[in-house]
Amino acid sequence: MNLRIYxxxxxxxxxxxxxxxxxxxxxxxxxxxxxxxxxxxEYYRVENGNLVELDTRDSAKKTVVLxxxxxxxxxxxxxxxxxxxxxxxxxxxxxxxxxxxxxRQNTRGDYWVYDVAAKTLKQLGAGRPASSLMFAxxxxxxxxxxxxxxxxxxVEDLATGIEKPLTTDGSRKLINxxxxxxxxxxxxxxxxxxxxxxxxxxxxxxxxxxxxKNYLMLNTTDSTYSFVVPVEYPAAGEDPSACKLGVxxxxxxxxxxxxxxxxPVQHYIPRMxxxxxxxELILQQFNRAQNDSKLFVANVSNGTTALxxxxxxxxxxxxxxxxxxxxxxxxGKEFVWISEKDGWRHIYKIDRxxxxxxxxxxxxxVIEVASIDEASGFIYFIASPDNATQKYLYxxxxxxxxxxxxxxxxxxxxxxxxxxxxGKVALHTFSxxxxxxxxxxxxxxxxxxxxxxxxxxPALDAKNKPTFFKVTTVDGVxxxxxxxxxxxxxxxxxxxxxxxxxxxxAGATVTDEFGSGRNFLYKGSMAADGYIYISLDNRxxxxxxxxxxxxxxxxxxGLVNIEDQAMGAKEVLKWPFVDSSRVAVWGxxxxxxxTLNLMFQHPEIYKTGIAIAAVGWQLTYDNIYQExxxxxxxxxxxxxxxxxxxxxxxxxxxxxxxxxxHGTGDDNVHYKNAEMLINELVKYNRQFSLMSxxxxxxxxxxxxxxxxxxxxxxxxYLREHCPPGGR
Length: 727
Hints:
Layout: H1 11-19, E1 34-36, E2 42-47, E3 50-55, E4 58-66, E5 83-86, E6 92-102, E7 105-115, E8 120-123, E9 133-138, E10 144-149, E11 152-157, E12 163-165, E13 174-176, H2 181-187, E14 193-195, E15 201-208, E16 214-219, E17 227-232, E18 242-249, E19 255-257, E20 267-274, E21 280-287, E22 292-299, E23 305-312, E24 328-329, E25 334-339, E26 346-351, E27 356-358, E28 366-373, E29 378-383, E30 392-397, E31 404-405, E32 414-419, E33 425-432, E34 435-443, E35 449-452, E36 467-472, E37 478-484, E38 495-500, E39 514-517, H3 526-529, E40 532-537, H4 547-551, H5 560-572, E41 578-588, H6 590-601, E42 608-612, H7 623-630, H8 636-644, E43 657-663, H9 672-683, E44 689-693, H10 706-721
Parallel strand pairs: 38-40, 38-41, 41-42, 42-43, 43-44
Antiparallel strand pairs: 1-2, 2-3, 3-4, 5-6, 6-7, 7-8, 9-10, 10-11, 11-12, 13-15, 14-15, 15-18, 16-17, 18-19, 20-21, 21-22, 22-23, 24-25, 25-26, 26-27, 28-29, 29-30, 30-31, 32-33, 33-34, 34-35, 36-37, 37-40
């Protein structure tokens, strides 16, 4: 669901922007304000309104590519660039600005093209509505631009400015070149079209949501009369949108549809790219249950497909990451793939006939592929074989062999890398739970510091550092945890404990990175006030501990994770400095669901709970997420799995203090969950506190004063019902 908590910042890209001295921007997915130049040593960024080119080898070298004056259309103000694309020859620069939010991210806006030779700045789709263009991309030959506007795909000739519609049937329910709500939320699918290498065609998705029921959110505050806000939302048990792939000829605007086997309603196609040439596509297809992943190569000329790889699992298979790109090697004869078919996430090579070769071997998980340096013969990847809370850079030969750690041994924590196209340098960010982000440029493979804020050095002198620990439950489950003790800790006293939970497959909370151990909703310092703050990662969280760990939660969300958390808490309560009469738990989204289940299923442990934006009834949540982890509820037995894991099933058991918080404009976890929970608590006369935020979404941040109010509410409730301080 990506039932994950909204954390402050976009951590996947933040280290790039911090290195560049920029704040995080909500630009279109897959992009940002920093891009490598083709040589792999230089890079571009926006600085003080100018587009500049910098050199990783010489921090003093700076070339201004576009000045603010050059970015100023006649009679207008300079364009505030949010993202950009530069052709390899440097002749054309695509600029993204005036972005607007679409569900999670700002993926529609205005686009301009700067012609370096002609020194002209022209707006794409000038006749289209303002901020309506999505995912504009220059063709590989630099002569055209493609984009989506109002659910249709367009191409524009850069020399003449003539715009041509490539599809004309688009609507809110028939979506060309982008995706419906659930594909975006659960598969990270947003950009829904791809230029062919020869610039003559565009491959695109078409999503037919005409049979998807609308969830009607009610806006009661933005006008005198209330009005509905429809969201095409397939709940668990409901059929998905039909999905198909087409290839449109940009000269004739005629589409040839790809003949992907199977029922277009009962499958998903979350990934598609050109297969290294202009006549073939490669795509990943899932069955409805997402436990059968097929890879097809499609012939564009006749629309036929050939199955080259088929993988099945007793639980589920994760979608290919990232959402765009395909890792071809050996001149397009093979590609790199991640699979956990042997019980661990490992790297494989797969050729066009489906023959696969295992590259990484052993009892450890590859967290992600960082880069493929084919010229040097290495694949760089992130892993942490000995500590599931940390991340390090490794490399292995494309031909196979023994993995080699690249991150220095003294940089214990979370390490992230953006490796340049030439594989010689990388932007490296380091943090651990007590060290703020440190950003530097390093060389590879030696990992020597070149430039940046400073050479990485953990903050060993940090005060009141959070600590990591392990607990083993009565069921023999060993869990990682972190703990922040009170500032003036006295081992002879007993302190209240607050557990922070998430617990579902979309995210882990026990990570050795800066920000872990910090409660961003608490006003003030929990440690200074005298709280013990703890988080535990149960089975089912995406820690690099093997497939068995992660998939133990299959068809058991709301049961296995809850039992692990509760039994882990029981072990913590045995510590002599923990006050078992003052135990609180809180979480957001999936963590909110976990909080409710812990309060209801284990009222003997948890005395106070704060649950935010929780799924109270699993059958209300979307089909892609919920069916992936709980199965497809095709009959009553299938539905019972969802019901057994739902907090509302156990609401009558509430004994402690509960504060429930939800935004009425939540398009992700609908406010219906709050009202169903309210009805059940009222039915059994269970007293609780409720805070509804009108028209706020899943992140509860819209509107003046919202976050300040939420933080104050959270803090006051916790202090009142779980008083701080040692006793």
